[in-house]
Amino acid sequence: MKARALAIVSLIVFVAILSGPLLMPVADGKEISDVKVLMLVTTAFGWNYFDAKEILESWGVNVTTAAHALDVNVASCYNKPPRGTTADFLLSEVDNEIVTQFDALYIPSGGHWQGLIGSTRVLDFISYAYEHGVLIATTCIGNRVVAEANGIVNGSSVVNYYTSALYMSLAGAEVRDNEYDVVIDNGFITGDSGGGTTGGGYLLAPTSEICKAIVSKTLGYSYVEQAQVLPLIGESGTSFNISADITDLDTELESLSFADNNITEVHARIFTEENRTLIDTIELSDLDGDWTFEGSFIGSVDGEYIIDIEVKDTNSTLEIERAVANFTVGIEPTNTTGGILDPLLIGSIGIGGFVVVVGVLIILKKRS
């Protein structure tokens, strides 16, 4: 009887694996109170630092400040009344072991950027942190610091902040259109400014959006739940249908007391898999109102391709999920409909099949 029950359970597991969606992973067991952010400042840091620190701490995030001095109040930017802060760490003490204990590094706005890029040590531990999975977040002229950090932005999309755009391009980054205030891509969260001393300054900077992105990405959340392309293989001239399941994260991030976000645009960007050369950008539409955005691409050149899904919200934040699907042009489809099984699905079938076989063997053994 037990053996028969095991076989039934095995079949249920097998069916569940085949029918269940392949969702983006969420950080296991991590809560907002577990998120740790290291802010880097020196003399002449911008008031954006205070806004970001206060927002993050109000949500329960642990914020640590590293500066060039501990025994005096580190002076803020010259274009505002003096408002100092006291650091928790000396920049000279921050090493690779310390920096990788944090989930994100945040470089706020302000004239302190010159002091930061003047320190090889600082640039080295920023790049080390990035290479070891630490998010790098910047606002305003803080982007200039990241542009100097040993080429870590190469191949990543970044915000178009006017005084850092040239340096970002020289470092190999893709500077995106002016329509975006925040760009989230490839481990970077880059934010625009509020317009400097005459344009609203820190009050209009997208600080809360950057803070939200830090928390969201640390906890493993994304606007993109899953994406797929069908067929996976087709000859030249095949129409590949792209779909992406999108969420606004209002439920997941409701505790942040952040204004509801609405999704305004979803695009699929198609790249060659070998060297990420951009081939085309396809607008995806949600015609049925079911949060599944769809579009199509005609494959005309043989090769292997990957798809990024880009989502823009009402706060002019652009979130990019890389290589969420792939397909091949130039090989005859394996069946008359032009479809082919997804490799992940094949793996799931294999696992499910193994479970079923084990259950059957147990039954046979019991009967014998």
Oligomeric form: single chain
Number of domains: 2
CATH fold-level name of the largest domain: Rossmann fold
Which whole number gives the mean pLDDT? 82
**SSE order, one letter for each helix or strand:** HEHEEHEHHEHEHEEEHEEEEEEEEH
> What level of helicity do the residues show?
25-40%
Per CATH, the architecture of the largest domain is: 3-Layer(aba) Sandwich
Unreliable stretches covering 5 or more consecutive residues: 5-26, 333-346
Q: Please state the overall shape, judged from the principal axes of the Cα atoms.
A: elongated
Describe the SSE topology:
Blueprint: H1 2-19, E1 36-40, H2 48-58, E2 62-67, E3 89-90, H3 96-99, E4 104-107, H4 113-117, H5 120-131, E5 135-139, H6 142-147, E6 157-158, H7 165-170, E7 174-175, E8 182-185, E9 188-191, H8 207-218, E10 224-230, E11 233-234, E12 239-246, E13 263-272, E14 278-284, E15 292-298, E16 303-313, E17 317-329, H9 343-367
Helix pairs in contact: 1-9, 2-8
Descriptive keywords:
368 residues, 2 domains, 12-stranded mixed β-sheet, Rossmann fold, alpha/beta, 3-stranded antiparallel β-sheet, 27% strand, elongated, Immunoglobulin-like
Notes on the protein architecture:
This protein is of the alpha/beta class and 368 residues long. It has two domains: 140 residues, Immunoglobulins (Immunoglobulin-like), CATH 2.60.40; 187 residues, Rossmann fold (3-Layer(aba) Sandwich). It has nine helices and 17 strands. Strands 1, 2, 3, 4, 5, 8, 9, 11, 13, 14, 16 and 17 form a twelve-stranded mixed β-sheet that branches. A hairpin with a 3-residue loop joins β16 and β17. α1 runs antiparallel to α9 and α2 packs across α8. The longest helix is centred in the last third of the chain and has 25 residues. The radius of gyration is 24 Å and the shape is elongated. The protein starts with a helix and ends with a helix. 38% of the residues are buried.
